[in-house]
Amino acid sequence: MKKKLFSQLWIYFAAITFLMMFVVLSVFVGLLFMINHYQLLTPEREGHLFPFYFIIFLSLVIGAALSFFVGKRILQPIGNLRQAMSKVSKGDFTVQLDEQQQMEDVEELYHDFNVMVKELNSIETLRNDFVSTVSHEFKTPIATIKGYVQLLQNDSLSKEERQNYLERMLDGTQQLTHLTDNILKLSKLENQGLGLDFQNFRLDEQIRQVILFLQPKWEQLNLTLDLDLPRTNYFGNEEFLYQVWLNLMDNAIKYSQKDSSIHVHLSNEEDGQIITISDEGIGMSNEVASRIFDKFYQSDTSRKTKGNGLGLALAKQIVELHHGTIKVNSSPNKGSNFKIYLPNRLKTS
Fold first, then answer.
1. Which residues pair with 227 in a beta bridge?
2. Which of 117, 205, 219, 257 has its CA 20 to 30 A from that of 2?
3. Taking every annotated instance into account, which residue ranges of this chain make up the domain Histidine kinase (predicted)?
4. Cα–Cα distance, 120 to 94 (Å, whole number)
5. What angle do CA 189, 284, 133 make, to 5 degrees?
């Protein structure tokens, strides 16, 4: 809709100013006419001050009427908005203004205010959830490390027990490091955005490096890897894309059944690359699949599985910064299939 040149508020103020000027001018013109025509100011004439009293009374009535109009139609909506904004500034994000107003501009202003408050409420809820989840994620390994430190103070521990406690403390510190790294990477992506450094590299070799890096994990479960990785050159951010394959492969291994298989296929299409990573693990429901890329979301609320709910959120953000997409198709007890599409990007000079 074409934006109006003059808003209703401007028209109201202009009309009131013009009306007041017109009234004042009319009163003075009328006063001069009456004085000249009826010679009202002659001392000999009885009641010669009555016209002045009438004019003063009339001016007060007109002024009161105009003040009521201005207050009712213009100043009161502004006052209501000021009170509502004061409540919001104190942390009350439940405030909503009545959008049914006589003036269209005030109605639009109230509507925009209501939308803003709803968005602030959503952000505040997200912030509270974020703080709560991060606090929980940090508290668990810290409490574990503290507990083992106390146990290590026992001089009667055997060498094997002491070594076991030290390894568990190391696991706790690695969990904290992993959580911190993911939070910092997410923050870097959100702030850096499309300013990432892109370069040419071998995409197939990068995925192989990730698989070799995770070899101790998949060998421990005796997993079979079905690989189809043709030679592929890609122009993108090598550092962050490595994190995508690392998170996806780590998840595939973590949720796979022993002696099962993981399939990793890379397909070179005309407009981009398609990478699929499939496992034969526990899978997930549609409800879990719809939220799997949310920050800090973990389907295992008991937290028996390692992780902090940031890996897939990080992977999705990296893929989207490459203008690609990542999708998951999964069913309980039938495994999961992650499909990543990375469009080709022309190298710019």
1. 264
2. 117
3. 133-346
4. 10
5. 45
